[in-house]
Write a structure and sequence with these properties.
The complex is a heterodimer of chains A (252) and B (493). In chain A, the strands form three sheets. In chain A, strands 6-9-10-3-11-12 form a six-stranded mixed sheet, sandwiched between helices. Chain A has a four-stranded antiparallel sheet with strand order 2-1-4-5, covered by helices on one side. Chain A has a two-stranded antiparallel ribbon with strand order 7-8. With 252 residues, chain A is α/β, with parallel strands linked by helices. Chain A has one domain: Rossmann fold, CATH 3.40.50. Chain A is 40% helix and 28% strand. Chain B has one domain. Chain B has 13 helices and 23 strands. In chain B, strand 3 and strand 4 form a beta hairpin. In chain B, helix 3 packs antiparallel against helix 9 and helix 10 packs across helix 11. Chain B is globular, with a radius of gyration of 22 Å. Chain B starts with a helix and ends in a 6-residue tail after the last helix. Classes of the chains: A alpha/beta (252), B alpha/beta (493). The interface between A and B is medium-sized, with 32 and 27 residues.
């Protein structure tokens, strides 16, 4: 479960998040929509612990614990996952090596044993099949020379493998064609469970036709300006963000 | 950018003086008086019962050396070295011909144990009893200046391979030593090589007879121990026609307050169809967190592809020393010969590295390949300096050079200085170079997936150097990977 309470965040002199509060219950899929520059990605980065942002005040609670003082890897070990809008390339590091290193690093932090090779391979195979990732791709350097769709699928595969208790998807659908969106959505839907919460950040309502959210929040000017159910996304599809645009520019 | 700032802070806080292998072994040394003159050169030669020709060879080098000046073209700076303040000969007293391990100074064995060198009775027994020669490494351990123990000698002898201290080879195979010594790096070659020729104390000698594939990887560990002792190893490796040998060299040294001079010479000779693979993992004391102390490593390494279709391959992982001045090179004399240079050079703290290679194409259809990966962190300076040249008669010469630099933090420097000289119109030389920084985005991505900052850095760096790591023999690859992680400890926040 994720609770964000009265969060104020700045980068340099510029305030980006403005007294933002948000709560996502276990098992809930919440969507955040909003115009460009409304602070959606900033929210994702701050929750995951990227350092260049300054948290002025407020709290981020993951399963009841304030995580703002923790490093990104400690937050990850506590079950937080962020699927990146632009997954980075790591030349020379085989994808398989990366997966194994990440999984074992988290297990180590949690005081668990490393996985045996056969057990690890079994999990990789399962996650790979779900996201249409061929074994050949796992031998290549992580994200190097991957297409946009492959990168996004790889991120979701990592999510499947790491089994987080809370996952944030930052514009995972951007730059994807409709088939790729479908594969990604299938992966996410397969991971839906009563204990696992999701925060889906998206600019376009179409992703929410494939991953049906329980709640939809509209973000503008660094705060949540409207909340509702799936019908709010459908409305935005018709009207666009025009009515929120002013609010955005004012602050950003 | 707060993250970048923190990176810098961490690098500043890095304490290089937490050098893992910094300890000192208390063994009495049998040393010549301080300083260098003809008497000392004669003393060293006499100590080793050398034949007259070698004494003369040394003296000639010495007389040449006093007329020479230290080179100053490298991108390194250090206070002047007073060569009269150094000792040029020191040997552990107990090293005069131990017949078994019982006779080896226990202090010495303890030192090796700390370093994890498998030079104990059990290891030798296990090695002897093990079936086949797979996975065994013969160790010719050099402690200060004298080889104190040689293993697996019998098995090598069976194959006809000579692997012994060079001082022993002078006695037992004078014709080979006389024929090849100084034939690749002549005594007049450069300031440090000339000094080495005058005062070299010991090192390894390898001769692989025609058509023989050396049955095991040959390995040697060097240590510097005695205060103010210059180390002047001399290594000579000859692969006769159609022979193959792979040689591994690994080094660590105890911590020191004063700078230690190291000026080794390594000569490799590959005759027709022969192949020599020479791998180094170098981890000498780099100096403390203020840059004080540390080894000065001024080394001349050169291979001569003397025969047709011969091949010489250098692989190095350089993480230690305050100053590294080192250019393992290949003279591609034989037609169709091939030279390779694979290098990982990591500098941290106040280390200065000026390293690279020379590929000198003389024969027809000679090829060479250079892959260099430099990683600079802390306040270090890391320079690649390489020369690729083709003689006017060297038709069909080809070279490919790839030279990548990675920077960690904002106070270090990476430099690339390639010299490319083609005198034959059919020459094809290619040069690629990149310089990059570990990005905060890469670090954050890895950390979001659960890796600590240090794990993330080690992973990214290991990815960066992968092409070179793959060239190392299995025994060294794992060690090298660990060494890379240890060398970068504390370099990222």
């Amino acid at each position: 479960m994720l609770e964000v309470k009265n969060l104020n965040v700045a980068i340099g002199e510029r305030q980006i998040l403005n007294d933002l509060s948000l709560s996502v219950a276990p098992g809930e899929i919440a969507a955040i929509m909003g115009p460009n520059g409304s602070g959606k990605s900033t929210l994702a980065y701050v929750i995951a612990g990227k350092q260049e942002y300054e948290v002025l005040s407020g709290e981020v609670l993951l399963n009841g614990e304030n995580v703002l003082e923790l490093s990104p890897d400690e937050r990850a070990a506590k079950g937080l996952f962020l699927a990146f809008q632009y997954p980075v390339e790591i030349p020379g590091v085989a994808t398989m090596t990366f997966l194994k290193t990440a999984l074992n690093a988290q297990r180590k932090q949690r005081g668990e044993e490393e996985l045996t090779i056969p057990e690890f391979m079994k999990r990789v195979k399962k996650a790979g099949e779900m996201l249409d990732i061929k074994p050949d791709m796992l031998k290549r350097a992580l994200n190097v020379g991957f297409s946009g769709g492959e990168k996004k699928r790889m991120d979701i595969m990592q999510m499947a493998l790491l089994e987080p208790s809370f996952a944030i998807l930052d514009e995972t659908d951007s730059g994807l064609d409709i088939d790729a969106v479908r594969i990604v959505a299938q992966g996410v839907n397969a991971l839906r469970s009563p204990g696992r919460g999701f925060l889906i950040i998206t600019h376009y309502p179409r992703l929410l036709d494939h991953i049906v959210p329980d709640t939809v929040h509209v973000m503008a000017g660094g705060r949540i300006v409207r909340s509702g159910g799936k019908e709010l996304a459908d409305e935005l599809e018709k009207t666009g963000y025009r009515e929120y645009a002013g609010e955005s520019e004012e602050l950003v | 950018m707060a993250a970048v700032q923190e990176t810098i802070e961490r690098v500043k806080a890095l304490d290089v003086s937490e050098y893992k292998y910094g300890f000192f072994t208390d063994i009495e040394a049998d040393k010549a008086p301080k300083g260098l003159n003809e008497k000392i050169v004669r003393f060293i030669s006499a100590k080793k019962n050398e034949p007259e020709w070698l004494t003369g060879w040394r003296l000639e080098a010495y007389r040449r050396w006093v007329t020479m000046r230290e080179p100053n073209w490298a991108r390194v700076s250090y206070p002047p070295i007073d060569y009269q303040e150094l000792y040029y000969y020191s040997a552990p007293k107990t090293a005069l011909g131990p017949k078994s391990l019982d006779e080896v100074d226990p202090e010495l064995l303890k030192t090796y144990e700390k370093l994890g060198i498998p030079l104990n009775e059990q290891a030798i027994l296990a090695g002897v009893e093990g079936a086949g020669s797979d996975g065994r490494i013969a160790v010719d351990a050099v402690f200060d200046s004298v080889s104190v123990f040689t293993t697996f000698k019998a098995e090598l002898a069976k194959a006809g391979v000579i692997f012994c201290p060079i001082s022993e080879a002078v006695q037992t195979h004078p014709e080979l030593v006389r024929k090849y010594l100084g034939s690749v790096v002549p005594p007049t070659d450069n300031f440090f090589a000339t000094l080495n020729s005058a005062v070299f104390t010991d090192g390894s000698f390898v001769y692989v007879p025609p058509g023989v594939r050396c049955p095991m990887e040959l390995s040697t560990y060097f240590r510097i121990n005695e205060r103010n002792t210059g180390q002047f190893e001399r290594t000579l490796i000859i692969a006769d026609k159609g022979a193959y040998v792979s040689y591994l060299e690994g080094c660590t040294a105890p911590r020191r307050d004063e700078n230690q001079l190291h000026a080794a010479v390594v000569e490799l000779i590959a005759l027709d169809d022969a192949e020599i693979k020479y791998s180094t993992v170098q981890n000498w004391y780099p100096g403390d967190s203020e840059g004080k102390g540390g080894v000065f490593n001024f080394v001349t390494k050169r291979g001569d592809c003397r025969g047709a279709n011969s091949k010489i391959s250098w692989t190095q992982v350089e993480t230690g020393s305050a100053i590294t001045w080192k250019y393992p090179s290949c003279i591609l004399r034989g037609d169709n010969s091939r030279g390779e240079f694979y290098s990982i050079a990591i500098s941290n703290g106040y280390q200065q590295v000026d390293s690279g290679t020379k590929m000198i194409h003389l024969g027809k259809n000679t090829t060479s390949r250079v892959i260099s990966k430099g990683i600079a962190a802390g306040n270090s300076q890391n320079t690649y300096r390489g020369q690729i040249s083709s003689h006017r008669k060297a038709t069909g010469a080809r070279n490919f050079t790839n030279c990548d630099s990675l920077l960690i933090g904002n106070d270090c420097g990476a430099h690339t200085v390639p010299y490319i000289e083609s005198r034959n119109p059919s020459t094809q030389f290619e040069h690629e170079a990149t310089t990059s920084k570990i990005s905060e985005d890469q670090l954050f991505y890895c950390m979001q997936r659960g890796l600590s900052a240090e794990e993330a850095t080690a992973l990214i760096v290991n990815g960066f150097v992968r092409d070179v790591l793959q060239q190392l023999p299995m025994e060294f690859a794992v060690e090298a990977q660990k060494l890379i992680a240890v060398s970068l400890e504390g370099s990222v926040g």
